[in-house]
């Protein structure tokens, strides 16, 4: 796999179009996500550890919005349960093509190009939504999470990682500023940061932890907690 540096927003753009997961993004994706999402690698490793604990024999583990398959790969490495299949799904054909190339030797991973709102979810012990729900329209989120809940086996878990927003304006400003400081420390310029933010403006819709927690409980989950947070990026675990 090639790993190019993300320079997509280095030069000034007159009309910034909505962010899309196209070939340009695919080419730089590993670099982009590591330098943009604080704690990304920690979260990926922990998805492996949680999967090792919760994957059940003869069940499915879903990686929804799998991009290039980083979570699927670590799940595959860590699963100890027998006869588990990993289902990796993304709606971007460019992502899926590269994902298939990255995971070509992994026979336990089924890779599907589809909208995650439309696939069947069943017999699941672990479901991962690693920075994907934030791209689903707000009005579809509850129904989608209800379907995940229905598809989970007893004692199944959902690992949900999201960019968060905050009700308190001072917190919102602080966490946003600190995220920008993180990106600057990773080598992004102010121009790159602000152009990327404009491109994501109507595409990535963050919510507060309370909104996530309440909706997940409404969907049926027993308990919902944050297990990791780094500025405005958090990962939650919801237990059935
Ligand atoms: C990782 N989980 O590396 N159906 C299917 N895929 C979708 C949908 C949808 N409705 N909406 C968005 N996507 C990965 C990182 S990236 C996060 C996930 C980020 C896909 C989209 O095509 C993209 O590949 C992914 O969700 C989000 O652990 O780039 O911030």
In short, what is this structure?
This protein is of the alpha/beta class.
Largest sheet: 7 strands, mixed
Number of strands: 7
CATH superfamily of the domain at 41-165 and 206-239: Vaccinia Virus protein VP39
Examine the secondary-structure arrangement and name the CATH architecture of the domain at 41-165 and 206-239.
Answer: 3-Layer(aba) Sandwich
Question: Gyration radius, to the nearest Å?
Answer: 17 Å
Mean pLDDT: 94
Question: Major sheet: order of its strands?
Answer: 3-2-1-4-5-7-6
* Total DSSP helices: 8
Q: Low-confidence spans: pLDDT under 50, at least 5 residues? A: none
Ligands, ions, cofactors: ligand GEK
At the first level of CATH, what is the class of the domain at 41-165 and 206-239? Answer: Alpha Beta
**How helical, in percent, are the residues?**
40-55%
Shape: globular
Distance between the termini: 37 Å
Described by its quaternary structure, the protein is single chain
Order of helices and strands: HHEHEHEEHEHHHEE
List keywords for this structure.
240 residues, alpha/beta, Rossmann fold, 7-stranded mixed β-sheet, 8 helices, globular, binds ligand GEK
Question: What does the secondary structure layout of this molecule look like, with pairings?
Answer:
Elements: H1 23-36, H2 40-54, E1 60-64, H3 70-78, E2 85-90, H4 93-102, E3 109-113, E4 124-130, H5 138-151, E5 152-163, H6 169-185, H7 190-200, H8 209-218, E6 223-230, E7 233-239
Parallel strand pairs: 1-2, 1-4, 2-3, 4-5
Antiparallel strand pairs: 5-7, 6-7
The structure holds ligand GEK.
